[in-house]
Amino acid sequence: MQAKKRYFILLSAGSCLALLFYFGGLQFRASRSHSRREEHSRRNGLHHPSPDHFWPRFPDALRPFVPWDQLENEDSSVHISPRQKRDANSSIYKGKKCRMESCFDFTLCKKNGFKVYVYPQQKGEKIAESYQNILAAIEGSRFYTSDPSQACLFVLSLDTLDRDQLSPQYVHNLRSKVQSLHLWNSGRNHLIFNLYSGTWPDYTEDVGFDIGQAMLAKASISTENFRPNFDVSIPLFSKDHPRTGGERGFLKFNTIPPLRKYMLVFKGKRYLTGIGSDTRNALYHVHNGEDVVLLTTCKHGKDWQKHKDSRCDRDNTEYERYDYREMLHNATFCLVPRGRRLGSFRFLEALQAACVPVMLSNGWELPFSEVINWNQAAVIGDERLLLQIPSTIRSIHQDKILALRQQTQFLWEAYFSSVEKIVLTTLEIIQDRIFKHISRNSLIWNKHPGGLFVLPKYSSYLGDFPYYYANLGLKPPSKFTAVIHAVTPLVSQSQPVLKLLVAAARSQYCAQIIVLWNCDKPLPAKHRWPATAVPVIVIEGESKVMSSRFLPYDNIITDAVLSLDEDTVLSTTEVDFAFTVWQSFPERIVGYPARSHFWDNSKERWGYTSKWTNDYSMVLTGAALYHKYYHYLYTHYLPASLKNMVDQLANCEDILMNFLVSAVTKLPPIKVTQKKQYKETMMGQTSRASRWADPDHFAQRQSCMNTFASWFGYMPLIHSQMRLDPVLFKDQVSILRKKYRDIERL
């Protein structure tokens, strides 16, 4: 046996050596023939050495990265595993593997920042009202540009919202129309909005055309098809959803305990067959007709009677007995089961009604899930565990229920109450991806006032904003900067502006004084200004317009700003007291002169009044304290059209600032100690620059009110009857016991 093994090994070794010599000989002969050809070429002067001559030749060079979905168009010699082929083919989007890093050109955003271009509408193309609202929201935003060369993101004017082929809003031949766009570039840096996709009976998420490398802002998108940090999940909203503004949430008071008449409610269609029918068909198992009221109806569609089951008649009868609005406003939890698609109108309806959504839609990527923590505002259920839902929600503590309801109101008003907010939230999320170094964190997105009003370019530190002192455990600043708006020449040392400057400088909380010189006359000499213990900086306004008083000047070194008109009369004691009040309310406007608004039924418009009553909704910035962030917000958030109106009228800038702050805080300003001298002094001014002496002044302010309300989409001003006075103010006690004793003498 051993001898046979030795013979077998020798035979194998000999065979291997023979094969080795054979193939080696072939290569040797080939190289010799190649050398002879080179020698012949060299002798005839035809030899051209190349850089590759000195390097070995590899059979295949490294290929650049290409998404798997594009490999089918490449050289067939590239090997793709069966699993990779399945992954690519199973996706409804060819750009399934797309992410910001691979399918987005960041260089377009470096030069001009985050600008969005909307394609011009093509002749003959019909656009549904909902999509018109989306485009109008973009074009009215601070991101919009009409120059495609400056754009970072592109949005189609072709209506892509409804891609259900049975819908009358369906746009035909969209594939060829999109491909013909000269800026399409395979969808790179494009954003496509979509509410409905697929059709009966399977309702897939296919939008009916090749989106290429475009991002999707899509409703009812599944986690399977959602591309994280690339697509944006948006809510399903109806065609009646307001374009701007929107109604406020229905939680008017924090009722304790926060329980309502019904524990859990639902009222909607029941699908007898097909996708989305399983969950709704099983709701009757949970319905008890008392505090859990889950109503469905089969009465929808043309041929519902052909398919009705034994429960349909009973369900339809009970369905008619209940009013949906009454149920919604008197329920603690609202069931949000999937329909034919994953999303449902019930979602936004529940948010607005402060009814905690109970989600029953497995696989739904919730709206704006990239930034919103839905565990703080909703209960995420499982369709397979429907019977456990009642016991689960009954186990939630009342404190938690109240917190959930409060969060629904914040999210509704911050991101969902209008088409404009939905669109702006989508754009802000994409902007945060592009500029990650200044992106908003989870606290900003999930705490009041929300991501839309916190502009990250202002600062990356939360302590620089007026809303997060308590969250960070910080105290409000202890110093303020007085900004005096001067519009008349300095001709006398007894002018009110100089007295005002001295009074403000004597405040123990004053860090510096800035005089904004918006007068047509040259700056006064330095010796004309009184000597003070704090620095006085005089800034000459370049444009000399009203809005310039709210520019974010780098010279303002404190968070608190005391805004003053040149003819305001205030004592040092009044300044000190107003600032101590502001320290308790750093997010609001705090000051002396108050005004109010009202609805004029006869004229069907908003009115402005300066009558002295116990009710007010504005504190004029002629003598008011606020956070300097509002200068930045006024300059960079508000549209140029409103600021241009203010500058042309030389009026209403104080009203616009009140609109802005109330829209952000959802709170009224705070008036401190009644001061009739302010009104009397202002009305007594006879200087040319006194706006109060202008007969058109009041009419202009009426007009401003309505223009501002139109842009905001609602009236953000809030009435208040609260006035803060010093402790022991006008009490019958010794004046020596009072800290701000001088105020009573004014």
TrEMBL record:
According to UniProt, the reaction catalysed is: 3-O-{alpha-D-GlcNAc-[(1->4)-beta-D-GlcA-(1->4)-alpha-D-GlcNAc](n)-(1->4)-beta-D-GlcA-(1->3)-beta-D-Gal-(1->3)-beta-D-Gal-(1->4)-beta-D-Xyl}-L-seryl-[protein] + UDP-alpha-D-glucuronate = 3-O-{[(1->4)-beta-D-GlcA-(1->4)-alpha-D-GlcNAc](n+1)-(1->4)-beta-D-GlcA-(1->3)-beta-D-Gal-(1->3)-beta-D-Gal-(1->4)-beta-D-Xyl}-L-seryl-[protein] + UDP + H(+)
- Domain Glycosyl transferase: from-to ranges: 480-729
Q: Which gene encodes it?
A: EXT1
This chain belongs to the protein called Exostosin-1
Q: How does this protein lie in the membrane?
A: Single-pass type II membrane protein
User: What EC number(s) does this enzyme carry?
Assistant: 2.4.1.225
What task does this protein carry out?
A: Glycosyltransferase forming with EXT2 the heterodimeric heparan sulfate polymerase which catalyzes the elongation of the heparan sulfate glycan backbone. Glycan backbone extension consists in the alternating transfer of (1->4)-beta-D-GlcA and (1->4)-alpha-D-GlcNAc residues from their respective UDP-sugar donors.
Q: Which residues cross the membrane?
A: 7-28
